[in-house]
Every structure is written in structure tokens, then in C-alpha cells.
Amino acid sequence: FSIWGNVPKGPPAILGITEAFKADSNEKKINLGVGAYRDDAGKPYVLPSVREAEKRVIENKMNKEYAGITGVPEFPSAAAKLAYGNDSPVLDKIAVTQTISGTGALRIGGEWLKRWYSGDKVIRIPTPSWANHKAIFQDSGLTVEPYRYYNKDTIGLDFDGMVADLKAAPPGSVFLFHACAHNPTGVDPSPAQWKELSRVCLEMSHLPFFDMAYQGFASGDSDADAFAVRQFIRDGHKILLSQSFAKNMGLYGERAGVFSIVGEDAEEAKRIDSQLKIIIRPMYSNPPIHGARIASQILNDPKLYTQWQGEVKGMADRIITMRKLLREKLEALGSKHDWSHITSQIGMFAYTGLKPEEVEKITKNYSVYFTKDGRISVSGITSKNVDHLAEAIFQVKG
Ligand code: PLP
């Protein structure tokens, strides 16, 4: 008899791709599974602004006391300004807390909805969505339902399906939106489409929950990437917002994130804040301080902030360049397929439209590793490996 004899083995996580990649001895192998930025040499990248901020944090010889329940105070307040805009009228009506990166923000948001949302305890997420969304919200005690988002045939947005699903849901439903750089498809609504989505949500009294994991990383411009969030705010929505600094500051393992809720007024925000603390305290007491101090240095020092914005743009631009290059190479090889979606999609990921059996062949014959849904992490492409990648796709797909 074993105490845990009843525990079945779970399926392997996405990290399985990296394992297989590591075990491959082909010199030309490429890992397009990673959800983290790589430079043009294929190496992880620590932003110079982050190095500088970290240096300052260390030179300041700060102590290691606990942060408050809602974190290092200068961090969430500055993060909110980054998201909502420096002079946003809602800044004094929000309850905002530091979280354990974007995942933690979503989890707190899920917990909040389960505890305090008076409507149905159901959250609607796009099909497809980031693989973790469903699990996070289910573990928060919510029911997760899908809404239409991606159109396989056009490798683009199923805008009509999305609007139809918004209209078909019971009034007051909670909808999760990727604020920019939709993961895994790289397909975003246009500004005009966001305006329409906001209008329909108002009409239906839906509650929008934005997951913003890539602000600045999508277009290279933090304001442009915040368009959807700010449009919904202009239209009067009381949104929930999750922010991650994993990608745009490259702070992955530091777990620096923020969650906020827009209230009716400052007094309501205070009440919300008090209840957020009651949710967080028994979960992990208070969040880690180091990454938050780094992010706070960057966000609160105008010079460092400007430097950081340039570096985010540098990452975004490299990704955009790799998209162009891959498309050009495929066209130059004489591919008869339309690859325009590679350059019209945005952010870290490209949905190639390759079928699972094609992905398998590409991996087997060319040692190019990516997920079966045909998603490639564009940040794994470099000026050196793009030829091999284009060749692999062309040989299998034509
Ligand atoms: N949301 C989306 C859509 C993501 O792609 C990610 C990371 O890949 C996250 C949230 C959260 O990441 P983290 O918890 O590292 O901030």
C-alpha cells in the first residue's frame, strides 16, 4: 500500500519540446517552442535598463523586510500608469496590487470573481487561448466557457463569430480579452474592431477582464499596445486588468506582475482593496520584492524609463524583422501559399496554419521544434537560422 498510489501520472507540459530539442544532436536544430525572448544569437536577453536598475537596487543596500500584502507600493502604482495612461481619470478609482507575475494576477482575479462577482461565476475565454487560462480560472472555482476568436480558414480573426458570441452570452457575463499580442495566434482585433467590441460589451453589460502580458512587446510602443484597455476605459467600462512584466522587461523569473480593478469611485476602490488583501494574505502573505524593486526603478525614473522603452522597441522590432524575413524567404523559395499572416500577426508568436502532421514532419526531418498547433515562437528565429526554417517549412508544405 502506498499513500499516493492513487495518483495518476499527468501529461507532460509544453516544456517537453525543450527536452526533445536538447536531446537532438543536429547542428541546425531550432527551438521555436520557448515563450521567452531570445536575441539574434539565440541567447536569453537581460535588458541593459534592468541591469542598471538592479545595480541601483543593490547599491542602495535595501533591507529584505517583507513588502506589504499588496507589494512594493511604488511598483503597482507606476504599473497602473503604464497601462491606463499617465493622466487617466481612473487612476484614483482603482484598487491595485502587486502579484506573482501575470499568472498570479489572473489567479487573484479569478478568486476575486468567485468571491465577489454577483453575476454568473463563469468566465469566457477565446478559442484558442493561452493554455494556462482555463486551468487558472477553473482552479479559482469558475466555470470556463469558450468564445469564438480564431478563424482557421483565414488564419485571422473570426470577428463576426466573436461578436455573435458576445451577444449570445447572458447579460453581465465575464469576458477575458488578450489586451494585445494574442497568445497563441498573434491575431489581434484592429482598433476599429476593439471599439465595436467595447460597444457590444456595454450594450450587454458584460464585465471585461484584460490580460496584458505583452505591453510594448507587440508593436514596440507601450501606448499603442494599451489601446484596447484605454478604449474600454474611455467607454466607461469597469475592467479587471492583469499585467505581467515578464516579457516587456524580461523579468520572467522575478515574477513581477500587477492586478487592478476599476471601481466606481475612490471610496469603492478602498473597499475593493481591503478585500483583495483578505484574498491574498492566506494565499502567500505578500509578494517577492526584488523584481518589483527593479521594475519600480525603471518605471519611476524618467531617464531609465526612456531607455527601457527603447529596449522594448528593440525586442519588438527584431521580432517584426524576423517575421518579414521568414515570409520573404518562403516566397523566394517559390512557396505557393499565402504567408501574409506571418507579418500581419503580432507579438512573440506566429500561428503558421501548419497542420499537426506537417509540424511532426518538420520536427522529424529538420529538427525544428514547435507545438503541434503550428505555433512558432518568433523570438526563436535568428538571421542565421531563418534559411533553415524557411527551407524546412517549404519542403514539407510546398
Ligand atoms: N498571459 C498570457 C497570454 C501569457 O502568454 C503569459 C505568459 O506566457 C502570461 C499571461 C503570464 O506569464 P507570467 O506569469 O510569466 O507573467
Architecture blueprint of SSEs:
Layout: H1 16-23, E1 30-31, H2 48-59, H3 74-84, E2 94-100, H4 101-116, E3 122-127, H5 131-139, E4 143-148, E5 150-151, E6 156-157, H6 159-168, E7 174-178, H7 191-203, E8 207-212, H8 222-225, H9 227-234, E9 240-244, E10 256-262, H10 266-284, H11 290-300, H12 302-332, H13 340-344, E11 349-351, H14 356-366, E12 368-369, E13 375-377, H15 386-397
Parallel strand pairs: 1-12, 3-4, 3-7, 7-8, 8-9
Antiparallel strand pairs: 2-10, 5-6, 9-10, 11-13
Pyridoxal-5'-phosphate binds at residues 35, 101-103, 130, 178, 183, 211, 213, 244, 246, 252, 257.
What is the element string, with H for helices and E for strands? HEHHEHEHEEEHEHEHHEEHHHHEHEEH
Ranges where pLDDT stays below 50 over 5 or more residues in a row are none
Describe the strand arrangement of the main beta sheet, using strand numbers: 2-10-9-8-7-3-4
Secondary-structure class: alpha/beta
Radius of gyration: 21 Å
Largest sheet: 7 strands, mixed
Number of helical stretches of at least 4 residues: 15
**What would you call the shape?**
globular
Compute the separation of the termini in Å. Answer: 56 Å
Mean pLDDT: 96
Bound molecules: pyridoxal-5'-phosphate
Q: Report the count of strand segments.
A: 13
> Percent range for helical residues?
40-55%
Beta-strand fraction estimate: 5-15%
Question: Mind explaining what this structure looks like?
Answer:
This is Aspartate aminotransferase. Its EC number is 2.6.1.1. Keywords: Aminotransferase, Pyridoxal phosphate, Transferase. Its cofactor is pyridoxal 5'-phosphate. Residues 28-393 form the Aminotransferase class I/classII large domain. By secondary structure, the protein is of the alpha/beta class. It is 45% helix and 14% strand. It has 15 helices and 13 strands. It has helices spanning 16-23, 48-59, 74-84, 101-116, 131-139, 159-168, 191-203, 222-225, 227-234, 266-284, 290-300, 302-332, 340-344, 356-366, 386-397; strands at residues 30-31, 94-100, 122-127, 143-148, 150-151, 156-157, 174-178, 207-212, 240-244, 256-262, 349-351, 368-369, 375-377. Strands 2-10-9-8-7-3-4 form a seven-stranded mixed beta sheet. A two-stranded parallel ribbon has the order 1-12. The chain has a two-stranded antiparallel ribbon with strand order 5-6. Helix 2 (48-59) packs antiparallel against helix 12 (302-332), helix 7 (191-203) runs parallel beside helix 9 (227-234) and helix 14 crosses helix 15 (386-397). The longest helix has 31 residues, at 302-332. The radius of gyration is 21 Å and the shape is globular. The chain starts with 15 loop residues before the first helix and ends with a helix. 46% of the residues are buried. The mean pLDDT is 96. Bound molecules: pyridoxal-5'-phosphate.
